[in-house]
UniProtKB/TrEMBL annotation:
Residues 1-21, 447-469 are annotated as: Disordered. One of its GO terms (biological process) is regulation of gene expression. This is JmjC domain-containing protein. One of its GO terms (molecular function) is histone H3K36 demethylase activity.
Length: 469
């Protein structure tokens, strides 16, 4: 979004034409934008660990290098080492079998908040029961219709034929210079946001319990009971009973944060702005298909992000009362709106073979640039505990990660935080979230671009090609 025109915000450029120097700390009042603030959209960093560095999940995740990057960027990308092969013929066969019957496909409607069409509410329609083939055929047809509309509309002419990577010549992709890559990816993002009002509904095969990974995969095995997380040995039943979490369908468990989910994307299918349940880490692996495009905000700017998100929502009857309304996963924001208010936003195009990690209390959102298959799970480590204890709760839905569970984990792995939590709780105060370092804007602006990486996995989902005329 341009900073010119009838913006309700103060000018970002001083009258002498020079930018205003930004302060070194983020707004003391959450959501107050920073005078002089327009920031550029930057790439998140890409890590290329050796198999040896990668194989111990927690050691790698908690290494100084990764932690530093996580606090700074909120989201990071890892090019998984070639020795790590998450699939084989058998896992593919199992996956195909599990996707054979009709699947509940999510329907997403995009409702712009105002005429600038830079932020949206995503409303959920009734889920549709479709087989994978029906879902892919229908989304492909819609995609072709969208292209036809773009061709007919003069102001959208420049968005026609923004190629999906899979349709590009592999060689051309490899030969791209960083500048060409940047321009192409920026077009992909532009097309997505500009077409939200034309393609005002999308379908997404999201949140299917399941895994596409080999059962004998030795590390980063998302569905393994031994995935090294602090939630692993919780005596859930006892805690649930002690805290009265017994629902109609039995004892409440933390399945949602302990088991992986599959995501079968189509063009424009979207994940709204959110942090994880209990503000955990998440790990997301793209098995196959077109890139998943991400936006992420480092957690030091999360409160400012929340305040801006609240400002963007129309002040009607539906204005959210809930202090944690973003947990409802129904808000989509153009990164420029945030950047113009001085909130740092990073992006990446995740390709097959890439693992994206989101950090505790780091907002993230994005879309699929075509048909693809991703798998994600939550991760809990010792350094996450204070974030888990501080996580804001949504009052309108059952809590997927009650704080009593986090407290139980803290008693075992971080007694000091557990004690602070108890004192705060007895005093009716929230647990104080850890203080986080802020990156100075100069350093932000100097963040380097990362290199693209070619996908290396065999195709599982093979949608037909989009028509080219
Ligand atoms: O792929 C998706 O739709 C969800 C991505 C996400 O939010 C995550 O992996 O944490
Ligand atoms: Fe997420
Ligand atoms: Zn809520």
């Amino acid at each position: 979004m341009s900073s010119k025109g009838s913006s309700p915000y103060p000018p970002l450029i001083k009258s002498d034409g020079k930018g205003i120097k930004r302060p070194y700390s983020w707004p003391a009042t959450p959501g107050s934008f920073i005078p002089g603030g327009a920031l550029p959209l930057r790439e998140i960093p890409l890590f290329k660990p050796t198999y040896d560095e990668f194989k111990d999940e927690i050691k790698y995740l908690t290494s100084e290098e990764i932690q530093k990057a996580g606090r700074k960027f909120g989201v990071i990308k890892i090019q998984t080492p070639l020795e790590w092969v998450p699939q084989d013929d058998e896992s593919q066969k199992k996956l195909r079998a599990s996707l054979e019957s009709a699947l509940p496909i999510l329907v997403q409607h995009f409702v712009p908040h105002d005429k600038t069409q830079q932020s949206f509410s995503i409303e959920r329609g009734m889920a549709r029961q479709l087989t994978l083939q029906q879902y892919q055929a229908e989304t492909l047809r819609k995609d072709n219709e969208l292209e036809a509309t773009l061709r007919k509309t003069p102001k959208f002419k420049n968005l026609v034929g923004v190629l999906k990577e899979r349709e590009m010549d592999e060689k051309a992709l490899e030969k791209e210079t960083p500048e060409q890559k940047r321009r192409r990816e920026s077009k992909v993002r532009e097309k997505y946001f500009k077409t939200r009002v034309i393609q005002e509904s999308t379908m997404y095969g999201a949140d299917f319990s399941g895994s596409a990974m080999r059962t004998d995969l030795e590390c980063w095995n998302f569905s393994s009971k031994d995935f090294p997380c602090l939630t692993k040995d919780l005596d859930e039943e006892t805690i649930a009973q002690e805290c009265g979490y017994v629902s109609m369908d039995g004892v409440k468990t933390l399945d949602g944060v302990k088991l992986p989910y599959l995501y079968i994307g189509s063009y424009g299918s979207t994940f709204a702005c959110h942090t994880e349940d209990g503000d955990c880490y998440s790990a997301n692996y793209l098995h196959d298909g077109d890139p998943k495009v991400w936006f992420g905000v480092p957690c030091y700017a999360s409160e400012a992000f929340e305040a801006v998100a609240r400002q963007l929502i129309p002040k009607g009857d539906d204005f959210p009362q809930c202090p944690a309304f973003l947990r409802e996963k129904s808000t989509l924001i153009h990164p420029d709106l945030l950047l113009a208010r001085g909130i740092p936003v990073f992006t990446t195009h995740q390709r097959p073979g890439d693992l994206v990690i989101t950090f505790p209390y780091a907002y993230h959102w994005g879309f699929n640039s075509g048909h693809n298959l991703a798998e994600a799970r939550n991760v809990t480590t010792k350094d996450w505990i204070p974030f888990g204890l501080a996580a804001k709760k949504c009052k309108c839905h059952p809590d997927p990660f009650p704080v009593e569970y986090v407290h139980e984990i803290a008693k075992k792995h971080d007694p000091k935080s557990a004690r602070v939590f108890e004192i705060a709780r007895d005093d009716n105060r929230p647990f104080p979230r850890p203080k986080l370092d802020v990156i100075p804007s100069e350093e932000y602006a100097a963040v380097e671009e990362s290199e693209p990486k070619a996908g290396k996995l065999k195709s599982i989902l093979k949608p037909e090609k989009r028509s080219s005329n």
